[in-house]
Every structure is written in structure tokens, then in C-alpha cells.
Queue: 3 jobs
Job 1
Amino acid sequence: MRLPPQLARAVAKRRGEFLAGRLCARRALARLGIDSADIAIGPDREPLWPAGAIASISHAGDARSASPAPIRT
């Protein structure tokens, strides 16, 4: 997993939070059978979820979590 250019100058703590959150999200989406090779960053710094999914990433202190759900149409 690579850091996006937006985080090139971020402090190590922020880079770690970002990578840990994205890793949690990737693993959680995989459990739903949704491929999430890359979760991009949107114009307002929001995660851009893969087609067919919606999710949330959270981090506080040393804890990281991601809660995904499939979108049913």
C-alpha cells in the first residue's frame, strides 16, 4: 500500500493512522467480497469507496477500525 501524494509531507503519526485505517478498510471490504485494492482520497479528503460499497474509517488513540457495508440496488 502506498501513501498518496497528499500525505508526502505529513508527520509519521498521521501517515501511520492513514495506512492503518486503509488497511482495516481493505480487510473489512475483502470479507464482504469487495475488491478494494486502492481506496483513493476525494476532493474533500474523504475516502472514495469501490463500486458497490460504503464504509467509514475511524481512529482514536491507538485504535483503528473500518465499518463497511454493501450497497444493494
Note: The chain is about 25% helix and 25% strand.
Job 2
Amino acid sequence: MKLLLTSGGVTNASIRSALVRLLGRPVDECRALCIPTAQWGHPMCNPTSVRGFARPSRAGSTRRAWGGGSLGVLELTALPTIGAERYVPWIREADVLLVDGGDATYLCHWMRESGLVDLLPSLSDTVWVGVSAGSMVMTPRIGSYFVEWPSAPDDRTLGVVDFSVFPHLVDGTVEVISEGRWRKFGAWARGQEPSSPYAGRPCRHSYVPGDVSITSWGYAPRTRAR
């Protein structure tokens, strides 16, 4: 599987170009499934925010996050009840899995429970477009700062990549990172060692097995373990 790990989705030209390179063809020719599952694990998310992610309209957040061709919805919490013979073909037919934010530990739990995590190694041509927690779930740990799901046993996630990410370091259009925000990032980064944390706004990490590249439309500080 190819990974495009973003803070807020396909929100600018550089991120869109990275997506096109990973797909190998125009985004408008591709099929995507959006996965809103992580939202259910976060107290700030609700049915309205899930609808905002899944609704395919120009004004909606999904078009901002995806900006491509056909779009469907894949809810991981439903998959264990309907059988792999139904949902596995849906996943294999998709060019892109667009995975929304929320709580990454909740998403990790349902990726395992649904069987999706077991499918990932066989999806060699599929692009995983992570949005916030949808990106963080691929890292080894997210840090206690980002754990909102009360039933999470700890902050560990899938560990598909060997670095951690701090999304939304700068919010909105503000280009100045506050001192308080920097302190939070610093405390989080120290807790993530020995992995290499990244942060940015809006930023993306492209990952093909054995190859990681980073592009930021703004800030992308990186810290290394001592």
C-alpha cells in the first residue's frame, strides 16, 4: 500500500500533485472510499461532522480532502457483521482509501476488528490518504495528548511507518505558531522518542515501502531522537 499522510487532506497543489504521482493517473479517473470511523471515537465529532466528511459536495469537507472522482463510504464498525465476501471486493476495487480524523486509537481498534489491517499488505496499488488521525494511525504511537477514546488501552497504533506525526500544528490561515503550541509540540515530541516526529500545516508525507518524502505548505519541523 502507498501512503499519503496529511494533516487536513488534499488541500493544496503540492499535496494533490503527490497524490497524482502515487496514483499514476489523474485523480478524477479514480475511485475512493471514505472511512469516517475515527470520528466516532472523538468527543468533538458527531453525526453532523461525519456527514460533512462523507457528503460529496464542493462545499463539504470531503471534496476539500479528496478533490477527486467517484466517492463511496466504508464504515469499519459495520464490516464484522456483513461478511468479508461483501466488503473485501469493495476495498479491492477502490484506488484510494480516504481516512478521516478523530481518534486514532479508536480507528486502530476497528481496523483490527474489521479485518482491514490484514488486507493492507495485499493492496499494493491502493493509496491510503490519511487525514489527521487517519495519518496518525499508521505511526507507532500518537502520544497521550491525542488520545480521546476512553477505552483506549494506551497510545499505540499500527506502526506501519517508523515516525510519528503531530497534525494541525498551525490552525486555519495563521502563520505564527504560538509559544504555548510550541511547548505542547515539544512535550509531545520528547514523549515520542525514539521515533522521529514531524509536524506541519498543511503538510503531507508520501510513503512507498522503503521511501519517505515530506512536503509542507508552511511549517514542517522535524525532531530526531537523541
Note: Residues 58-63, 199-207 have pLDDT under 50 and may be disordered.
Job 3
Amino acid sequence: MNNLMSAGIHDASQQSADAYVLARRPLRPGSRLEDTARFSDDVWRLAPAIVQVQERTVVLNFPTIPARFRPAAKRLFYALFCPELESPPGEDCPAIASVRTAFGEMKRLLTWLDARWPADRVELSAISPADLDRYNRHLLTLSPSPGRSQRSRASRSTTSLALAHSPRE
């Protein structure tokens, strides 16, 4: 069993709605943990964990993700903020800006899956290599611009992140 399952991240009923999302992250001076986002919040404001002044304020806005995938997405992104959970081999705890970028790419993937999957498929662990291949082909058709290969690489990186942090059944 991987560490996310043993920590209760895979089972939403075991995840405390009152858990502070940024509890294991350093906070900027003057920020109080009590004023930060909780797992149950629909929008996670990450500004208290952005310690460098030049970084912009970021949020994870879960209502922008298809409703059926929100619980799984919340568990995934919560796991990315919890360094006590073992990261996959070769991966460090990601920076806040990297998590925000991954959120945008994950939202794009989940929106695409929402239009294609049967309604009973709700877990990220159900994403198959064939799903990822179809999604990659979809991304390549979006735009003939030179940036499309960069978007495709970013998407593959995000989906790899999801698969690495999502328990398999």
C-alpha cells in the first residue's frame, strides 16, 4: 500500500475537513496558520506560503474542476502540500508555483475526461495509459503554434504527477 493510502488521502471520509492545507509548509512572516485554507474550503488561497515577494498570489479554485472529480483533486493537491507523506522516488515536495501550474493542467485534463468518461468514473487512479495517449493527441490538435509541444509536455508532466500520487486499486 502506498503512503497516500495509509495516510487516508485516498479515502475522503478519513480526511479531516478541518485540516489546514498549508500546515506543513513554511509561512511568510506575519501569516498565521489559523488564517490559512482548510481542506473543506472550495478555494485554497496560497499567499501565506509564498515567501518570496516577487511571486504572485495564487489560489486553487476547486469549483472550476468538474464536480465529480473535486474530491479526488482535493486529495491529490492536499497530498502535494504534505511533506510528511513520502514523495515518489526522485521527486521533492513541489514549490507552490509548481502546484498552481499543475492545478491548471489537471483542470484541463479533468474537464476533457468529464466529457468522455462514464459518470461513475471519479477517481484519478482510473486514468489509464490509453486515456493519456488520447489526451495527448487531443492537445496536439488544439493549436498549430510552436507552444503546443510545450503544453503537451506540461500536460504529460501533470498527468504523471497525478498517477504517481494516486493509489492504484
Note: Residues 27 and 88 are 24 Å apart (CA to CA).
